[in-house]
Structure to design on (349 residues):
């Protein structure tokens, strides 16, 4: 597909500075882009590449000033990074819209209901009473259990497994290898030291505009639902345990784990490899630093914590700075002790 600078500017609501008829066929990083490619500049660290790149069209912030003439057509927008993300989304939509129909071999139960313009990839298994909305794309090798519901415009990438009774909303992306609705980790200790499995009869509900990365696992509830609220973004390799609730527009980075029945508020940011214990609450707007271990509720909104156990971010950084000074402090303390001893000897009658 080929687009002109003017067409791209219309999509991202920008203004062309240069040749409106300059055309591009693909994307490239500004430091590597060739003629016929589109690049963007959002980070000032890469500004020098603006004058050396071979890209035909470049998206830049509207405030970008030029130190010397360039050959590329510029598209000026308020926020180059956001505009580039919008453009990639539109491009992805154009590509996926071309994917329709049922590839063979695929198993679709006669009771399943599929909407318009649906794509089902080969080796996919769609079980009894599944309901799939319009314009849904299901890539090869997926499994949808009994009574699963999938909303319009959702994309399910290769190898995703969605267990029975789970609900996936509209405009959701679930990346390869993720498992939705596996059993929660529920076992009752017995007198003889063994563990009796507690049946997990709930489900998982994923609301609209959620994105879940590759190889994540979201367990079904013991009773009720594990909830991923609208707009949440989960990275790769994340574990969400049974009956957890993840709030609206919360983001969780890779390798983080959330234990059972914890409630995470809206607009929370959780760093990579963070661990959160069960049965606590994380207030709206909280920020949990990477590798933090959260062992109790964060009650104050917009808190920032770090460390294990996690504690107030600023206080912890001060403590860490003091810890690095301990050897010098110990040396000074010993010197003071010697000085005090000498003074005591001098002034002892």
């Amino acid at each position: 597909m080929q687009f002109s600078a003017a067409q791209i500017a219309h999509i991202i609501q920008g203004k062309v500075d240069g040749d409106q008829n300059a055309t591009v066929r693909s994307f490239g990083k500004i430091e590597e882009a060739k003629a016929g490619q589109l690049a963007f500049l959002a980070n000032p660290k890469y500004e020098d590449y603006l004058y050396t790149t071979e890209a035909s069209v470049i998206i830049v912030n509207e405030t970008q000033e030029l130190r010397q003439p360039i050959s590329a057509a510029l598209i000026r927008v308020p926020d180059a990074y956001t505009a580039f993300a919008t453009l990639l989304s539109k491009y992805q939509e154009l590509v996926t819209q071309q994917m329709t129909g049922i590839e063979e071999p695929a198993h679709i139960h006669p009771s399943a209901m599929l909407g318009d313009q649906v794509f089902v990839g080969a080796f996919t298994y769609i079980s009894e009473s599944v309901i799939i909305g319009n314009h849904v794309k299901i890539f090869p090798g997926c499994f949808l259990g009994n009574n699963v519901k999938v909303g319009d415009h959702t994309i399910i990438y290769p190898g995703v497994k969605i267990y029975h009774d789970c609900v996936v909303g509209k405009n959701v992306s679930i990346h390869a290898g993720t498992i939705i609705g596996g059993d929660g980790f529920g076992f009752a200790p017995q007198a003889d030291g063994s563990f009796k499995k507690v049946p997990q009869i709930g489900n998982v509900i994923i609301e609209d505009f959620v994105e879940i990365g590759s190889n994540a696992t979201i367990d079904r509830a013991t009773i009720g639902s594990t909830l991923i609220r609208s707009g949440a973004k989960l990275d790769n390799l994340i574990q969400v345990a049974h009956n957890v609730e993840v709030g609206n527009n919360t983001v969780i980075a890779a390798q983080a784990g959330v234990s059972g029945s914890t409630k995470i508020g809206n607009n929370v940011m959780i760093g990579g490899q963070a661990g959160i214990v069960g049965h606590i609450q994380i207030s709206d707007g909280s920020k949990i630093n990477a590798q933090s271990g959260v062992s109790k509720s964060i009650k104050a909104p917009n808190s920032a914590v770090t460390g294990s156990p996690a504690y107030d971010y600023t206080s912890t950084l001060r403590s860490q700075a003091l810890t690095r000074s301990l050897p010098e402090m110990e040396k000074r303390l010993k010197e003071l002790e010697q000085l005090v001893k000498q003074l005591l000897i001098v002034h002892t009658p």
